[in-house]
Design brief:
The complex is a heterodimer.
Chain A: H1 5-31, H2 37-57, H3 63-83, H4 90-95, H5 109-117, H6 124-134, H7 140-147, H8 151-166, H9 169-172, H10 177-199, H11 207-225, H12 231-244, H13 270-282, H14 290-302, H15 312-325, H16 329-341, H17 345-356, H18 365-377, H19 381-392, H20 398-412
Helix pairs in contact in A: 1-2, 1-3, 2-3, 5-6, 6-8, 6-10, 7-8, 10-11, 10-12, 11-12, 12-13, 12-14, 13-14, 14-15, 15-16, 16-17, 17-18, 18-19, 19-20
Chain B: E1 2-10, H1 12-16, H2 20-39, E2 43-48, E3 55-56, E4 62-63, E5 73-82, H3 85-93, H4 96-99, E6 103-109
Antiparallel strand pairs in B: 1-5, 1-6, 2-5, 3-4
Classes of the chains: A mainly alpha, B alpha+beta.
């Protein structure tokens, strides 16, 4: 089927939106000091709406150029309306549209926006959502899909958050170095969460997931390139690269979920692993963060020849360290899993049964799936089936359900 | 980061009449939210509370407690880590049970007593 002219225009627009939205907003902010971020964003949004209408009829020869030209005109009209510059010539404004070369630390608009989104008053989830909206330029519909929220819910959240970042000095003025370093940990967390959102297996094989992982890596790379990061930035980079190397291997030929044990290790991306290795090396010295521990654990998985030959003892030690840093039942679950494979089966089971008493954890499918798997390995079919049964009711994701059904079948026909 | 406690309040009378399925559905929804909090390093612990119990008043008189009759009784707690009160508030605002109007949350900082002996100023001045 030949795509219609409208489809082609829409595709081109989507592409340009992603590529240029931030830059267009940034160019308007540089164009005139009387334009604030909110207005700039509204104007650019308006430009894209006009483009939808106009491009249906004829595509401009230089679509990107068209966007910049029209956004500048809209800005001029807006300034005129604001200040009632009745007799001001368009050319007067255009004369100084070229921004003076800036020596700001955060000269990149997206980077400034990212640090503005890392507002300490906002919850991490809200920080991630506004980053996806204003830095990654995702549409509200996509964001609502990612978080299983309604578009209305996302909008409400954006309105609240906008108020917070509206007066941000970081957006317009030169942010102080101290301000950048105090926000760096929050920026790391945002990037980490964006990556994890993309990495979740529960999503199935949707394209947007991979894009989120790439966006997270790109944002982190900008920080490394501009040399405003620290050891944590490097460790986070290593962690993401190690995980990204296994991205596609987590699914089989027919889209079924493969656990670490059944993944084909030859399909892992060893270039990414090597690169991760480099960054983990760069991250050493100074304070050790959760990113260091998690990256080291990921490295041990990536460099093991097989599941059995994995250094589970060291992995369980690293989880024990991670627990000291951030004690929560979810890390404890991972600790217990590592202990099991390290041969400390009794201790592993006693931790898992202790976690079962926790009301939130007892409803967590990974806990019950692990218990099911371990009892299956231990030859206790009855208990294994009991836990798999529980698990089936605790996830609504088909790929995860199918994985459990597979385990149940293996239990029944060993 | 500092510790904050979210005190969960809801209509206990309604809750006690809830079917087992609905009760677990709510817990599941909260569990998913808690998972997110754990991933961002903000979750410490938390438990729901059963609707029954006892009440001891100032005169040390023990009774079944006013829980069932009260419209808004404490039904659970969640302890979180947050940068400041505003962030703790913002985290509370993302709670799905608040969004669907089932619970209210009181967001209170935990008072951590700093032991002067452990804070560099030891009694001997060493």
């Amino acid at each position: 089927m030949i795509p219609s002219k409208t489809d082609a225009a829409q595709q081109e627009l989507d592409r340009l939106y992603k590529l240029h939205f931030g830059k267009l907003v940034s160019s308007l902010l540089n164009f005139s000091s009387s334009i604030d971020p909110d207005t700039a964003e509204d104007l650019v949004q308006d430009v894209f709406s006009s483009a939808v209408e106009n491009w249906k009829l004829t595509m401009p020869d230089n679509p990107a150029g068209w966007l910049y030209r029209v956004s500048r005109n809209k800005a001029i009209n807006w300034i005129k309306a604001q200040k009632k510059y009745g007799d001001l010539q368009d050319d007067d404004l255009l004369l100084h549209h070229d921004p003076a070369p800036s020596d700001s630390v955060l000269e990149d608009f997206n980077l400034r926006m990212l640090f503005a989104c890392a507002h300490p008053d906002l919850s991490p989830k809200v920080q991630v959502i506004i980053t996806l909206k204003y830095v990654v330029n995702l549409k509200v519909e996509s964001i609502s899909k990612i978080f299983g929220m309604t578009a209305d819910g996302v909008d409400k959240l954006l309105v609240r958050a906008r108020q917070k970042i509206k007066d941000e000095k970081i957006l317009l003025a030169e942010p102080a170095k101290s301000e950048i370093s105090s926000r760096l940990p929050i920026v790391h967390k945002i990037i980490y969460l964006v990556f994890n959102e993309g990495y979740k297996t529960s999503w199935g094989r949707e394209l947007i997931r991979e894009e989120l992982c790439e966006e997270a890596l790109l944002l982190n790379k900008i920080i490394l390139d501009k040399k405003i990061g620290d050891n944590d930035t490097a460790a986070l980079n290593a962690l993401m690269l190690f995980n990204a190397s296994r991205f596609k291997s987590r699914f089989g030929a027919s889209g079924e979920l493969l656990d670490l044990e059944s993944q084909d290790r030859s399909t892992w991306n060893y270039d990414l692993i090597a690169l991760g290795h480099h960054w983990l090396g760069e991250s050493k010295s100074g304070v050790i963060s959760n990113y260091h521990y998690e990256a080291s654990i990921a490295l041990l998985h990536c460099s093991a020849k097989s599941f059995k030959e994995t250094n589970w003892k060291l992995i369980s030690d690293l989880y024990a360290q991670l627990l000291k840093l951030n004690a929560n039942p979810f890390v404890e679950l991972n600790y217990a899993i590592a202990l099991w494979y390290a041969g400390e089966k009794e201790r592993a089971l006693s931790i898992l049964h202790e976690l079962e008493k926790h009301s939130f954890m007892s409803r967590y499918y990974l806990l019950n799936a692990s218990l099911g798997k371990f009892y299956k390995e231990a030859g206790n079919r009855e208990l294994a089936l009991h836990y798999f049964e529980l698990t089936l009711g605790q996830t609504s994701f088909e790929a995860e359900k199918e994985y459990i059904r597979c385990q149940v079948r293996a239990c029944l026909n060993p | 980061m500092d510790k904050y406690m979210l005190l969960v309040r809801e209509d206990l009378q309604m809750k006690s009449k809830m079917s087992k399925e609905d009760f677990f559905k709510d817990i599941d929804e909260m569990s998913r939210w808690v998972q997110g909090l754990a991933q961002s390093g903000n979750y410490v612990d938390g438990e729901p509370l059963g609707p029954s119990g006892a009440f001891l008043d100032r005169n040390a008189v023990l009774s079944d407690g006013p829980f069932i009759e009260s419209k808004e009784g404490v039904s659970g707690f969640i302890t979180i880590l947050a940068e400041n009160q505003a962030q703790a508030n913002s985290i509370a605002q993302t709670c799905p049970m608040v969004a669907n109007g089932k619970v209210s949350l009181e967001i209170r900082p935990l008072v951590i007593w700093n032991d002067p002996l452990k804070n560099g100023r030891s009694a001997t001045g060493a």
